[in-house]
Specification:
The complex is a heterodimer of chains A (about 525) and B (about 350). Chain A is mainly alpha-helical. Chain A has 14 helices and 8 strands. Helix content of chain A is about 65%, strand content about 5%. Chain A has a two-stranded antiparallel sheet. In chain A, strand 3 and strand 4 form a beta hairpin. Chain B has a single domain, classed as Up-down Bundle (Formate dehydrogenase/DMSO reductase fold). With about 350 residues, chain B is mostly helical. Chain B has a two-stranded antiparallel ribbon. The chains are: A mainly alpha (about 525), B mainly alpha (about 350). The interface between A and B is large, with 89 and 86 residues.
């Protein structure tokens, strides 16, 4: 193993992990803001409960995203110093804008929201969750602007061998960004949709299992009530409403993901044809979309592969909107890349020991081929399941089947899987470039960088191995802790976020017993 | 001398100062979670003094890092890669600390709370030490070659300045936190915080002062002697006010000490942003490490709008949560029970 490979693994592991938390934060943040708005406008108890419960889960997840996001920002300089030097003039700006314009808003207004319950005027408290939620989406925009520049560099000129920014507007309106952004947001909402659906299903199911809700002869739910454990009628409304919101969000997001994904793939055929050829494991020019290809994808050898099931014309449709255009396969793209960018890495000290070695322009097909398909499959599964779920709950509750409940809970993972697979596909598909060349004939020449040149020359293999092991260990432990905590709060239902629901039998006429806290002491609406 | 790179050097120095001033007390409060705080209620008082604000404070670090990347990519790349191992520990420390703040109160169990308490104490300690070492080394130099890469093994950065800078920030955080707690709490904790401040202030500020003296002597700029004096006066003022139990003024005095101290250090090393201890020809300076004029110009426009906005709404949070926290303001912990 070389330092480069370890550095890549580390970036991959830490980024995929970070992006487990990010979509849930973005998706759930907006959902909670909408729920609180509903409470603000209608005053209905169920919306307050929804805000508190989902808000609590949002926070448990949010903090992990914040904590692991720091690593993302530091590791460009730590492990990828040559990359940072090469792209810093253009790549650093969106990151700086992200922290100055979005991350500050997110962190500060979330602090206000958490501790401001009952302290801030209701409208300002509502405004603070909206500010935080919109800022998470603003963050996503700037980070994707940076990433899109790596996929499709624009707005720069080459001066002394480095890309120098000449047009920030071009960077912020990169066409790659304009489709990647809604695609990513819809992906995030689909995660939140699945999350709402799965957990609400579990609670509706539990109310039936415990005999609180029953089903009448007409098939309609008869809502029961057991206030002592917080299981009253409003509790039923919380879960049913949340489930329906989740299912609708999941379906709408899938529509959005599919539409923007289609636009994105059309752009990608233009901007990174090799990535799409590798996504298809398409060696020869053709029009068909492979449903199943056999052969040894891992060997990355074209002659080994046969597409056994193929939808004729579909690939052309994805790329071009018709059914007949020949889409170029790896065999015809490869000579072009070799001619333009060389067959071997140049004899430049920047490549270290890798100088002069042969360049493999074909991304790891096992990863791109299956990554692309997993993304689509998981996405479709989640949306299909949401549709079915919506139909099943038409009578106001879920069936008693434990098996179905488990399916709904496990289904939460599908949109997460789709998100991860999509990112792994698009980042691995960009290889061997860390900054992919922009093929636009009117574009900028020669702005590209091989991943092999990007790693820190001064950082040793031992350091990287140590840090990868340390991050993997810590991240592993924290994932267990987060999931454990999420489970506990999910099982606890609304009272886990609103303990006052369990104490309604207690008299609350303001007697000043010794244990009672005085009004003056109530400086914290929510205390750690 | 170019205007924009100099401006951005000042802005980044400002971000670091803001970070040390704000997160300084929440790091210190973190270190005091064990030892100083005697029981769970006191720990919760400490935690809740910084609860609504610590995350916003930490963004100053993120912004300092991102602004360095954008404005001085060579500085960012050389510094962060040379300090690879210590920064891994800083990151892990900050991760544990952040998660601990949020998760500690979410289960009603002593084992759970104990574990997170230590995550907060150690996380705060390691993060403060690491940031201090990094700042000291960027002002005193690292063994960098012509390309700006570290020469020597993973520990080639380690020297007396790293230790001095680390201790400087750790000790500063502790007294800063004591001043903050005197200002933000009531009752027994407030009294003990004042005592801690009064007893340790003169000693705790020594490492930072030594570091400043070292770079001032090496830099030899007369203005830095003035700012250094100002820093000493700030510290003396803070101590005198602490004696008179004027909590707000002593906290302010520490602020003056920090501001004048970091201004001294950054002015003394200017125009170097990261000297090379191998050959001064390899020094990274505000001009050699900076981004293009265009990039800095764009960033300046954004900063001109963004920084004041941050100061306003961050200031607003401090105003909203201005009340003192005491043991009686802590509500009972509640267990999360499966329904």
């Amino acid at each position: 193993m070389e330092a480069l490979e370890i550095a890549r693994w580390q970036f991959g592991v830490t980024t995929v992990y970070h992006f487990l938390m990010v979509p849930l934060t973005i998706g759930l943040g907006l959902t909670v803001a909408v729920m609180q708005t509903a409470w603000y406008r209608t005053g209905k108890d169920q919306y307050l409960r929804m805000t508190k419960f989902w808000g609590k889960l949002f926070l448990i997840n949010f903090i992990m995203g914040v904590a692991t996001g720091l690593v993302q920002e530091f590791q460009f300089g730590m492990a990828w110093s040559e990359y940072s030097r090469f792209v810093g003039d253009v790549f650093g700006a969106p990151l700086a804008l992200e922290s100055l314009l979005a991350f500050f808003v997110e962190s500060i207004f979330l602090g206000l929201w958490i501790f401001g319950w009952g302290r801030l005027p209701k409208a300002i408290h509502l405004l603070s969750i909206w500010a935080a939620s919109l800022a998470t989406m603003g963050s996503a925009y700037f980070i994707l602007a940076a990433n899109s520049w790596m996929q499709h560099p624009v707005g720069v000129e080459m001066i002394d061998g480095r890309p120098v920014m000449v047009d920030i507007w071009a960077v912020l309106t990169n066409n790659t960004l304009l489709v990647a952004y809604p695609h990513t947001l819809f992906g995030a909402f689909s995660v939140a949709g699945g999350f709402l659906l799965g957990i609400s299903w579990y609670h509706l199911w539990k109310r039936r299992r415990d005999g609180i809700d029953t089903v009448g002869p007409d098939g309609k739910v008869i809502v029961g009530s057991r206030p002592a454990i917080g299981r009253d009628a409003a509790d039923h409304r919380v879960w049913l409403r949340s489930l329906r919101i989740g299912a609708v969000v999941a379906m709408v997001s899938f529509g959005g993901v599919a539409l923007t994904g289609d636009l994105q793939s059309k752009l990608m055929f233009e901007q990174q044809p090799m990535k799409m050829a590798a996504a298809e494991a398409a060696c020869h020019d053709g029009t068909g979309f492979s449903i199943l290809s056999v052969g040894d994808l891992g060997s990355n050898d074209c002659d080994d592969l046969v597409a056994v099931v193929e939808l004729p014309g579909l690939l052309s449709f994805l790329a071009n909107g018709d059914f007949t255009t020949e889409i170029r396969g790896i065999n015809s793209l490869l000579p072009e890349y070799q001619e333009k960018f060389g067959t071997h890495l140049p004899d430049n000290p920047i490549y270290g020991e890798r100088a002069g070695t042969e360049i493999d322009y074909v991304p790891v097909m096992e990863v791109t081929y299956w990554g692309f398909r997993m993304m689509i499959t998981f996405g479709m599964l989640a949306a299909g399941a949401a549709l079915v779920a919506l139909w099943i709950v038409r009578n106001g509750t879920v069936p008693q089947s434990k098996w179905l409940m488990r399916l709904a809970v496990f289904g939460i993972l599908a949109p997460f899987g789709a998100n991860s697979a999509g990112w792994i596909f698009t980042e691995m598909g960009r290889q061997p470039f860390v900054v992919a060349p922009n093929p636009d004939p009117n574009g900028i020449d020669n702005v590209f960088m091989f991943t092999a040149a990007a790693v820190s020359p001064g950082v040793s293999l031992a350091e990287l191995v140590f840090s990868l092991a340390a991050f993997a260990l810590v991240y592993g432990v924290l994932l267990v802790v987060e999931v454990k905590l999420l489970f506990a709060y999910c099982r606890g239902g609304v009272p886990s976020a609103m303990p006052e629901l369990l104490h309604e039998d207690k008299d609350d006429d303001g007697d000043e017993g010794p244990g009672k806290r005085k009004d003056d002491d109530d400086v914290l609406a929510f205390a750690y | 001398m170019e205007t924009l790179p100099t401006l951005w050097f000042i802005i980044i120095a400002f971000f670091w100062t803001g970070y040390l001033f704000l997160e300084g007390f929440d790091l210190g409060v973190g270190m005091l979670m064990r030892g100083f705080a005697r029981n769970n209620t006191e720990r919760r008082v400490l935690l809740n003094t910084v609860g609504p604000v610590w995350d916003g404070n930490e963004v100053w670090l993120v912004t300092a890092g991102a602004a360095t990347f954008a404005a001085f990519p060579h500085w960012y790349a050389s510094l962060f890669s040379a300090l690879y191992l210590p920064l891994v520990f800083v990151l892990l420390a900050l991760i544990f600390r952040a998660v601990a703040f949020e998760y500690r109160g979410k289960m009603d169990s002593d084992r759970w709370r104990n574990a997170w308490d230590w995550a907060i104490v150690l996380g705060s300690l390691v993060a403060a030490f690491g940031v201090g070492a990094m700042l000291a080394l960027t002002t005193t130099g690292l063994p960098l070659n012509e390309n700006g890469d570290r020469v020597g093994g993973p520990f080639a950065w380690f020297n007396g300045y790293a230790v001095l800078g680390g201790l400087a920030v750790v000790f500063f955080c502790i007294v800063h936190a004591a001043a903050f707690l005197a200002l933000k709490t009531d009752g027994d904790i407030r009294t003990r915080a004042r005592k801690l401040l009064l007893r340790w202030l003169p000693v705790a500020l020594l490492p930072l002062a030594l570091w400043a003296v070292a770079v001032v002597v090496a830099g030899g700029k007369s203005v830095t002697y003035v700012t250094l004096l100002l820093a000493v006066l700030g510290a003396a003022f803070a101590w005198m006010m602490a004696r008179r139990e004027r909590d707000g003024w002593s906290f302010g005095g520490l602020g003056v000490f920090l501001l004048a101290g970091t201004a001294t250090i950054f002015t003394a090393v200017f125009p170097n942003v990261l000297p090379s201890t191998i050959d001064s020809a390899y020094n990274l300076t505000v001009t050699s490490a900076s981004s293009s004029e265009y990039t800095l110009g764009v960033m300046s426009v954004i900063a001109a709008f963004g920084i004041p906005a941050v100061l306003v709404y961050q200031g607003y949070t401090y105003w909203v949560f201005r009340k003192r926290v005491s043991a009686s303001s802590i509500p009972a912990a509640h267990a999360v029970v499966p329904q």
